[in-house]
Amino acid sequence: MTKYVIFLRGVNVGGNSSIKMSELKSVLEDHGFENVTTYINSGNIIVNSKDSPVKIKETFKNIIEKHFKLSIEMIIKTQLELENILASDPYTSDEDDRSKRLVAMMSEKIDDKISLILKDDKNVNETYYAKDDLLYIYYANGVGRSKFSTSYIEKKLGVFSTARNWNTLEKMLELIKQGEVE
């Protein structure tokens, strides 16, 4: 069994795409997922599965479409991938407010094209670091005031993405490790 973290895109944000996490947890368990854990209400899920990420995504999409009548994108990471996201911390000592640190996870690798696309973009005032399919962003003035949103990133890069702040990523790693035997 492999431990996976599933980050649903745009769930329970601004009154859109409402999914009760307790209900989703129950439905996932009914479909054979083990050790299902959810964290807060924004679509953060941990599961154990013998299936591949592709199969898990297909199953999740089918479950959500049938049970909740929603079409939701998602990013799936293994425990090791989540550990590597946090271990690859590119932020400087001046970027120490964890609530202003976000990691946007993309549907494909973007680090080769991002500098060309965003180089002279006047809407991007934030510091960002690209690595593979990740965009580490520091929102010095807060996320809410920024034009550099996941929707903006998706339009510019032609990918879908979902973002989580540093605290959430750390909590997900903590939760995934709670089930490990020391």
The CATH superfamily of the largest domain is SP0830-like domains
Q: How many H/I helical runs?
A: 6
Strand content: 15-25%
Radius of gyration: 16 Å
Mean pLDDT: 90
Q: Tell me the quaternary state.
A: single chain
How many β strands by DSSP? 8
Q: Any guess at the CATH architecture of the largest domain? A: 2-Layer Sandwich
Q: Percent of residues in helical segments?
A: 25-40%
Given this structure, which CATH class of the largest domain is correct?
A: Alpha Beta
Describe the overall structure.
The relative contact order is 0.18. The chain has a 4-stranded antiparallel β-sheet with strand order 2-3-1-4, with helices on both faces. It has helices at 21-30, 53-68, 79-87, 114-118, 150-157, 166-178; strands at 2-8, 34-39, 44-49, 74-78, 101-106, 127-131, 134-138, 161-165. The protein is globular. The chain has 2 domains: 2-82 and 170-178, Alpha-Beta Plaits (2-Layer Sandwich), CATH 3.30.70; 88-166, Alpha-Beta Plaits (2-Layer Sandwich), CATH 3.30.70. 34% of the residues lie in helices and 25% in strands. It is of the alpha+beta class. Helix 3 (79-87) packs across helix 6 (166-178). Strand 2 and strand 3 (44-49) form a beta hairpin.
Topology at a glance:
Layout: E1 2-8, H1 21-30, E2 34-39, E3 44-49, H2 53-68, E4 74-78, H3 79-87, E5 101-106, H4 114-118, E6 127-131, E7 134-138, H5 150-157, E8 161-165, H6 166-178
Antiparallel strand pairs: 1-3, 1-4, 2-3, 5-7, 5-8, 6-7
Helix pairs in contact: 3-6
Structure keywords:
182 residues; alpha+beta; Alpha-Beta Plaits; 2 domains; four-stranded antiparallel sheet; 6 helices; 8 strands; 25% strand
